[in-house]
Amino acid sequence: MKFDDKGNDYFLHNFKEEQNTTTTDSQPSQNGFTFPEAGNGTGNNNDNPTPAAQPAVKKRKRHGWRWFFFILFVILGVAVYIRYFIPYATESRATGYVTRVEKRGIIFKTFEGEMISQSQLTDTTRIYSRDFFFSIPNDSLARVIQSYEGTGQPVTLTCKRYFGTLPWRGASKIIVTAVDPSTAPVHPVMN
């Protein structure tokens, strides 16, 4: 490309007047710029493909975007599946005293429970730190656990632990799958 600064300003030039006159590649135009004709194959236009090749390039780009979004969708799907549907602990057990089992929820009514862990009660070196909260998706299992509520009899709960919660499964990441009355001795309450 050749630039001639002797003529009129290129950006203030009226190109409508020059539409009727044609210039060839061998003659420079009046403003000093030479442009090769589109599609004649002359000039160095490796950056811009010919008009026949442009749809193929656009099609490849569109095809690349489809693959990108497909792979992104698959990765997100796998991450959601792992977070919400695969438990990271399946045979977790906790022994303690059931203090509360109630049905909660606005749209999805699920049984939610609370238990005082036996290990927390027997450890006298530490201050009592927390209760054990859990969800029970099975109504019949919830009624069995509810029968132990406030009895002072320790029970062992078998749980699954998930990374995330789902509204129809419960408000807790810990889901109870089974209950066994504990054979541990009942500790009398000291006065």
Notes on the protein architecture:
This protein is α+β, with helices and mostly antiparallel strands. The protein is 24% helix and 23% strand. The protein has a five-stranded antiparallel β-sheet. The model has no long low-confidence stretch (mean pLDDT 77).
Condensed summary:
With 191 residues, the protein is α+β, with helices and mostly antiparallel strands.
**Biggest sheet architecture:** 5 strands, antiparallel
Basic shape: rod-shaped
Could you tell me how far the N terminus lies from the C terminus, measured between alpha carbons in angstroms? 100 Å
Order of helices and strands: HEEHEHEE
Question: Into which percent range does the helicity of residues fall?
Answer: 10-25%
Count the helices. How many? 3
Protein structure class: alpha+beta
The fraction of residues in strands falls at 15-25%
Number of strands: 5
Uncertain ranges: none
> For the residues shown, what is the average pLDDT?
77
Radius of gyration: 38 Å
Strand order of the largest sheet: 3-2-1-4-5
* Oligomeric state: single chain
